[in-house]
User: Fold these one by one.
Assistant:
Number 1:
Amino acid sequence: MLTGAARVPVTHFESALPLVLLDSGDQRMQLLRAEADLISARRQADAANVTVGADRSDASAGSSQARGDQLDARAEVVRTVADLKRYESLHRQGAATQQQVDLAKSQYQQSLGRLSRSRGSQATARSRQAHIQVDVSKAAAAQAGVLQAQAALSAAKLQLGYTILRSPAAAVVGQRQVEAGQGVQPSQGLLTLVGRDVWVEANFKETQVSHMHVGNPVDLHIDGVPGIVFHGHITSLSPASGARFALLPPDNATGNFTKVVQRVTVRIDFDPSSIGIWKSRLKPGLSVVASVHT
């Protein structure tokens, strides 16, 4: 049977009890601004998408019309060339007047001009297709702006949530470091909470823990509850001695080695049936004498 002194720490339970309310005026303003930015970004994205759709429709219609105009112009050139050749042949035979030949030449020149204009229309249609790509890029940028605005809104909501400090455990406020109206800074301690669940951390000598295993039963004598023997069991052993977790671990590399018996922390959980009506008497920090049955 092994014995050793121990301390009783606390653990945590999930809870959502608000403890401190910070002034949230700035965070609410940022939230409203982020919501407005998101609405504006979505409208810009919608307008960009509508512009892309309208430009595609116009470009498609313009391209179809340009192709049709070019086909008509080419057909007109073929017809006017044939008419000009026929009138020139008839004029050489004396069967057509010079006025008819000149009129045929004029119609031929007009058909050539129409063909040239149809080619210009096709070039305009191709430039509209290139302009669509620019509009598509603008629409993608507008959609990226929506995602950015959504991220900013999420960040604003997160910052607003930080103005309500909630208890991480179903606990009792043991100490308060702030008062109403006082300014606070990040990482500043505001409250000290004491949880409801307890266990024992017993610091045994290294020669004692060699016989201990998880599950060994333990008898616990607590100075704050005299005359009562509590029962528990070992649930874990520390992976290293307490010296390894010290702020300045000892260094024996100099050769000046003095053997010091090390202590190993052993966690002991209370058996629920053993606590009974005494649970409210078990306070964090009480001294405990633990007797382990190995």
Number 2:
Amino acid sequence: MRKLRSLAFIALALGATAAAAQNAQVAKEVTSDSLNFFGIVDVALSYGTGSVANLTQLASGKSSTSRWGVRGFENLGGGLAAGFWLEGQLNVDTGGTGTSNMNNQSGGTIDALFGRRSTVSLMDFWGEMRLGRDFTSIFRNRDDVDPFSTTGVGANLADALTIDGPTATRASNMVAYFLPPGLGGFFGEAQYFMGENAQVTGQPSVNDGNGYAGRLGWGNGAFAVAVAGSRTRVAQTATTGDIEAVNVGASYDFQVVKISAGYYHDEIKQISPLTATGWLLGAVVPLGATQLKMSYSSYGTDAAGDPRGDKLAVGFLYSLSKRTAAYGTYAYLHNSGGASYALNGSITAPDRHSSGFDLGIKHSF
């Protein structure tokens, strides 16, 4: 933990983390009851090429993850409100649904109707208490700075290649608290989640899947900055151990261009610890109904040879209406140190490159 605290200090000193205050998902005052059905249908022609094998496919969610859900709020009076949020993944190309990890551990994956989010909340002037399955703090920090929203061929490599395990994106069995709005631009959250293992005396894996995470940031107008950290308990072996993560990022909107940056440090406390580091630089340029997007991301570990991937991504999103958009993304990935990462399902040999593109359409409802 001493090393984790040191990394957090370094990250703050660098001043790099992004997370717009409006994306903090803190509770707003609810003045009337509401019930909404919502979703996104996104499908693309996807192509990936590598030195060993290429792949062409019709793929779901290459600009925004295809999803559907229902959410509601009830005004309980005196500023107190209750709410719920049920959201599931859609695989538009096959008609299938997504999966969920029910216990925050390897091997706990099941088909899930509402695997993206299933929460119930109480909200008041003191903030929001949220219970259920939700994004982890460290994911929100990766997602907020990525021009491609950690989705598709252009997604941040620190997200696509993360070693943070089952709780890298979401955690089940979570109790979370979110700061209220109106704190001079400050926002934050604290999370505790459980693996829900039987308490067997002397069993080393009894705490597997238990963990905590947190995030603190500040946003005011064009600028936003946040730092996040997490720890997930895993019994120590030659290939497993507690997972610790710290990330930090920032964004600034110049109106003609919005720039963002992020830094990531992940570690698995196995018998011989494995450490991964990464970073991202991104930009979004609004041109009328079109957004031009670009990013450069890097992620690698200290395993033998120091395998690492570096990716350049460029793309566009053209709004045909308020709810419908067409998009295209191209990415080129360079491997080094024996890495053989590949894009869009292709296969490439160690230290060889991979490239790919997505061309699709999405509709929100």
